[in-house]
From TrEMBL:
Residues 1-290 form the RmlD-like substrate binding domain. Catalyzes the reduction of dTDP-6-deoxy-L-lyxo-4-hexulose to yield dTDP-L-rhamnose. The keyword Oxidoreductase applies. Belongs to the dTDP-4-dehydrorhamnose reductase family. Pfam families: RmlD_sub_bind. Binds 1 Mg(2+) ion per monomer. Its cofactor is Mg(2+). Its EC number is 1.1.1.133. Pathway: Carbohydrate biosynthesis; dTDP-L-rhamnose biosynthesis. This is dTDP-4-dehydrorhamnose reductase. The gene is rfbD. It comes from Phreatobacter aquaticus. The lineage of its organism: Bacteria, Pseudomonadati, Pseudomonadota, Alphaproteobacteria, Hyphomicrobiales.
């Protein structure tokens, strides 16, 4: 199976490349300048040249706060660009997997969100990602939209790396403790994507298409996540800091964060037979790779 994935420098794309099994699964990562979601005319030629069996649109404008100041730029990538990728998939006659986000919900629900819950984004990032979902669905019915959340990996810009960097110079950190979510390890997302991709390529059943939630098992707060990061880092000889739980109101940001980002993934398990490991498992594997290489006491 040959997968073309947009966003060649992203956490999910890197994880997909690492998970590819050579002759079994080939991942062709495409990004700027040959494929630029903000330049729709680049999309079809680049994807056609990749000759994929399926396309994964993992590229996105993910700067949540910056999207509030630059909504047009976020929409150009997250909606217009996503539509162009889906249109290319339709032209090439291949399925598309669109990676989306918990930010399509307002976070007010008290229990984990299911796919049929009403959407209600509260900021430009969520609005443009939701518009992208709708554009993809309209342009290519042969699609799976995978919503995930709180993504982390050994590489890239993410909460785990940010916490370890801050712990190098600060003995205590104030971390938000009133937002709940499912931290999700990018390599686990990649394994899930490959499983869904195989199903879409091999099976034409309608119920394998549509919207699915795909996050790690278990839940925590940002403060709880930080405490687990530091405990795991400390055990491996890496940096650690104390965690002072704070409220969302004590850490104002331009974009409002959902108080509840938890996603119910039972539909994905029932139909695609995909269930991601727990977030503590993902964190352990992430720290095992990250701390000795970059954050040990001996690391430069």
């Amino acid at each position: 199976m040959r997968i073309a994935v947009t966003g060649k420098d992203g956490q999910v794309t890197r994880a997909l490349q690492a998970a590819a099994g050579g002759a079994v699964v080939t991942v062709v990562a495409l990004g700027r300048p040959e494929l630029d979601l903000a330049q729709p005319d680049t999309i079809l030629p680049a994807l056609a040249a990749a000759a994929p069996d399926i396309i994964v649109n993992a590229a996105a404008w993910t700067a949540v706060d910056q999207a509030e100041a630059e909504p047009a730029q976020a929409r150009a990538v997250n909606q217009t660009g996503a539509r162009a990728v889906a249109e290319a998939a339709a032209r090439l006659g291949v399925p598309i997997i669109q990676i989306s986000t918990d930010y399509v919900f307002d976070g007010a629900k008290r229990s984990p969100y299911v796919e049929t819950d009403p959407v209600g984004p509260t900021g430009a990032y969520g609005e443009t990602k939701l518009a992208g979902e709708m554009a993809v669905a309209a342009a290519q019915p042969n699609h799976a939209i995978l919503r995930t959340a709180w993504v982390f990996a050994p590489e890239g810009k993410n909460f785990v790396r940010a916490m370890l960097n801050l712990a190098r110079s600060r003995p205590e950190l104030g971390i938000v403790a009133d937002q709940l979510g499912n931290p999700t390890y990018a390599p686990d997302i990649a394994a899930g994507i490959i499983a869904v991709a195989r199903n879409l390529v091999a099976d034409s059943r309608v119920d394998l298409r549509g919207v699915f939630h795909m996050t790690a098992g278990g839940e925590t707060t940002w403060a709880g996540f930080a405490e687990a990061i530091f405990a795991g880092s400390r055990a491996r000889g890496g940096p650690a800091a104390g965690v002072r739980p704070i409220a969302t109101a004590d850490y104002p940001t331009p974009a409002r964060r959902p108080a509840n980002s938890r996603l119910d993934c039972s539909k994905l398990e029932a139909l695609h037979r995909v269930r991601l490991p727990s977030w503590p498992s993902g964190l352990e594997r992430c720290l095992e790779r990250l701390v000795p290489a970059e954050f040990s006491r001996e690391a430069p």
